[in-house]
Structure formats: C-alpha cells, structure tokens
Amino acid sequence: IKTEHMQQLSIGINVEELIASTKYNPEIQSILTETLPSAEKMAAHNKANEPERVLYCLQPSNPIRRFFVFFSNQPLFDTVVFTAIGISCVFLIITPPYSKVPVGSTDPTLVEPPIPTRIMDMMGLVFTSIFTIEFFSRVMAVGLWQTKHAYLKSGWNVLDTAVLVFAIVDELQLFEGGNIAKMMRLARALRPLRLMKRNAGMKLLIDALVGTLYPVVYVLLFASITCVAFALIGMGMFRGRMHRCTWPGAEYPGGLTECSGFHVSDQGYMVHRAWVNPSANFDTLPRSMLTLFQLNTIKYVSVMHDTMDITGLYTSPSQNYSDYNCLFFVVYLVIGSLFIMNLFVGFIVDGFNSSKGEDSEAELEYTRFLRAVREYAPSFDLYRSPQNRYNRALRYITDSSVFVTISMSGVVVSIIFMLADHKNPDPVFAQVFELQNTILFWVLVGETTLVLLGYGPQGWLNDGWKAFDLFVCVGSAAGVISSRREIETVSRCFRIFRIIRLMKMIKPIRVILNTLLTSLPQLVNIAALLFMFWSMFAVVFVQLYSTTKFGLRLGPTANFRTYVQSLVTVYQMVTGDEWMVLMNDCAVEWPECTPVFSTAFPEYRYTGPDYEFGDCGNVYALGLFVVFMLFCQSVMLNLFIGMILDNFAFITDVGGEDDEDADGGAKQPSTHQVLYMYIHICIKYLYINIYQWSHTCICIQWSQICVEGADNGVKRFST
Asked: Would you say residue 523 has pLDDT above 50?
C-alpha cells in the first residue's frame, strides 16, 4: 500500500497509542513511524475538519441553521427565485427610461407601458424582497465569508450580491436624480446575469471564458502598445490637417481664412460657414486611438480618403492631393486589424477550449471512443415493419442503389430547371418547365407511396429521412391543390430541401453536416449567452439614448427608442453597420441639443412642456460603444467560429488508421482499436480495475468480438 494511501486511511486513529503498543517490536514500530502521519499533520487535519460556525455563533447542529439549510435546498424555493428573476427581466425590458415620455415631438401623448408603472414598482419591491430572503437564507446555511464553503467565496454569488445591492439601493431611492441615480437604474441591466448561474451550459461557457482572461491580458497589452505607437505616428502625420469648411466657398487653395461669413443653400436658407474637423481624426492621443480602433473593425475607407485629401495646415482638402498617406493605413490594417485582432480572437478561442479541458489527451481519447461507438453501434427500429413478402420486396426496391439514384436525379433536374427559370419565359420553355414539375411531383408521390407500402406508417417514425420526404411531398402537394400562384411557387421550393439527402451521400459534405449537428447543443448555449449580452447592452442603450436626437445614422432605421428597436440596432452594429457614426450621434452635447426640456433653464431657450429629460447624449458613448464592439463582436461572436472549428477537429480526427470502407460497418481493425481505446481510458484516466468490469455485458461482447477471427496477440490481449 502506498504511503499516502496509508496516511489517508489512518486519519482518526490515535497515532501515539498505536506506536506505543509496538514498543516491543522495533521493526514494526519503525514501519508505523514512517508510514503514519505525524502529530503536526494530524493537528492540521483536525483543525481543517473541525465544525464550522456560521456568523461565529451557529454550529452545524443548531436548529436555526438546520432550518435554513433545509429551506435553501428546497426545489420549490429555487423555482420561485428563478421565476422571480425571469419576470424581473421581462419588467426590465418593458419599463420606460423615464416616467413621462411623449409619443413624438408633435404628439404630447405620454407613452404607456404594457403594465402600469405602479404595478411594476410594487412587483419590483416583491422581487427584491425574494432575492433578499434568498441571500439571507444561503448565508445562514453556509456562512458569509469565513467558512470553507462560504457564500461570497463563489464568483457567481458575488455577482448575485452586487446585483442585489444595486436593487436595494434603487428600491430605497437613496439617490434622487443626478448621475448616481442613473447608475443605479443602469445596474438593472445586470439582472439577466443571474439567469446564467441557473443554467449549467451557460455557466460552463462563462467559467471557460473567464479562464481565458489571463493570456488575453498579454495580447491586450501588446495590442495597446502597438496602437499607441501607430497613434503617435498618426498624430505626427495628420494632426490639425484634416479640417475642412462646412459649405462651399473655401475650396483649395483657400482655407481657414476663406471659411467665414454665410452661404445661401440650394433651398434658399442662409447658413454660417464653419471650419470643422471630422469625428475620426488624429488631433489627440485618445481620439487617435479611437480612430485606430475604428480601423480594426474594417471601417477605414472614409478616414483614409480624408487623409489622402490633406493639402496642409489650415488649407482646404483637395481630392487625392496626398494619396501616399494611404500607405499608413495599409500597414496598420495588416498589423493592427488582420494580425493583432485575429491573434486576440485566436487566444480567446484557444483559451476557451483549453479551459474546458477539450485539448487534453483524455478528452481526445474519450471523444474518439464515443464517436466509434456511435458510428458502429447496431441500429434498431422502434416500430416493427410489416414482414410479409410483398412488403419485403418493396423495401428491397426502395433501398436499392438504382432507386436512390433515380430519386436523386429527379432532384438534380428539378433544381436545374428552377435555376433556369426567368421572367417572361419562352412559351416552349414554360411548357417544358410545367411538364417536368408535374412529372417530378408524381414521381415524389410515387416514392412516398412505395415507402408507405413497404415500411408502413411506422417507417416515418423509424427513419427521420423518410419523414423528411413526407414533409417535402405534403409541401409540394399544397401548391398543386391550391390555385394561388404564390403558394404554388413556394411549394415548388420544397423540393429543393431534398438536396439535403443528396449531401448526405457525399462524404466531405456529410462531415460538415455532422459537424453542424454535433455543434448544435453547444451553439444553442452560445446563442443564448450572446442574446443575453445583446439584451443587456440594448437595455443600457435604451436607458441612456432613447431620447437622443436623430443624427447622421441615428434615425428611423437605427435607434434606441424601445427595447426591440435597440436590439435590432445592436444586431446591425455587430453585423457591420456604421457603429462609429451611431457612436458620434449618441455623443452629441449642448449647444447642438437640449440637455433638459424644462423652462427652468432659460439658457437652453426651451419653451415647450416640461419633462425630466432632454435630447442630448453623453461622452460616455465613446467608451461604451468601444466596449460593446470589443466584447460582443470580437469575443462572443467569434466563439461561434471557435466552437464549430473545435467540433470539426473532433469529427475529422480519425485517431488511427484511415479506413475508406468505414461506412460499410465495423471492420476487425476498427473493432480492435475501439477495444484498445476503451481499456486504455479505463486504466489510464478513469483508474478503473478492468477485472471489475469483466462480468458486464459490454466487456463480454467486446471480448467475443476480438477473440473471433483475431490473431494470437489480440487473443492474449483480450484474455
């Protein structure tokens, strides 16, 4: 027996008494002295395992503590808390940012939420009380901080506590008005984070994502140093040289001096000329770094053209006057955008997979074993097919390669004709088109009928592909039955779905389909996590910029007036919309807007009804939009790609010799390999004695398979 095992077994024994009892046998006493734990180790063990007191007073046997342990472990209690979190998130979405918000600038009617504000305020108090009871009961059960399994020793519980503190401060209204009160309202957006703790899949994703932060810090440091270096170079090349006049009249070689006075627009308005700087410039270090971050998101065309038009200091730009300035952007795009950003994403994806343990040898062996078992396991039907000779003959026909080839040829012909369809076709083409539609439809009906006669109705339940063909047949029949042209056109497209079966017959495409199917459970968790973070940012944008005036991009098609519109705008930004223009629109400040619609501030020259808000944004938009793009686009969105690549690597990893005929069934080398991996995993990673499993059905079956027709070496190994 190993020494450490003996020491673990001997904990709890009176070591001094045992050693003293062997004083007449020095040899045994020496062995016990070397093997048994020392007095110091026993003291440390007793101290580590002594009963812990909650709040320095409640022992484990205390009735009060036992009640809270029982109460906090009840499934009904967790259900109530989870329901309260979900409903509070719904209230968070439908709650307007201000109590009195008009429908529009010309309609003073106030916006009414779906649920009256009074009821939502009362329910908010109820939910906060439930969360407070949950916190108190769990602290009384496991302790706050000083115990081994204290509540605040878990990062998820710390997050729950922070959200609870913000909620209590908001409910008590300790801060009325001002920036602190607005921060308390913004903290409501953190409530959806509590849902992740209750979902094992998302919790695993977040834990793995947090595990990537340590290596990513070095990438961020390297990226920041590179960004500062290029920002300083950009300041030296372009600072103060990107200004231009807002209206005609100061064209090159004119400049700042000529950009004065008034200009009459085409509509007949007299406007004042101004010497302005574009929002993306290199005048200061922060603004220069923000411009370079814009380049990292491949939004560089307008900035590059502005620098290529530079003519000098205080002179108007001229098209392509300094076209050599584009070399600066070419170099930075290669280094900053293509290299550093992809390095950043690569570190995140690799660290994410490593944090989940998927790169370990044990995980690879286990995945290969499961894949082999799934691939070579015998299949069976849930419902027995008819067994008379006519049904068996029809099944033989429908399963034959000739029948499948004819069926797939019809699909290919249908797709070719649909690709050749066009507006105002020739009468001959139209007749041929309709003829092939009719023929192929009845061919599909005939296939479905043969399957029904050969396998019976239960065949659609046993085989998903046969059910899929039935779905296509019913959808195609809807167009034949209906007299509407639109339904006929849509139903004709149902036949294209059968190309999926054609894909299954091609091995490389089948690998891709298997990758997608394998990735679906994990992708669902990532999609839910991504939607949750998008929702959080959408709520924050609604709270901050729902009343901000429209600008260059902020308008009817992209705004933050409601949660739905904000979520759509968030999706647009992640998928390539002009996020930097939205950022500048949300950063508008007085005097270009009205900070508060109130007659109490005469300097704003507002004369309408009084409200508690204005149409200005804030400078925090510059940092908020950068954090949003960095987190939601560069991190979360690329996890989709990382997850697919990770599953694709597992599927294409053969883990041994490549058997081109693997689709035909389990071959002898494949069977030997599966057995070897099974025993290897059991012995090396799971520490299971193989003899303990010798009487189970699995090992008996594998042993029989290996003994039959195997060489002597494999026989000895199986035995």
From this structure: yes
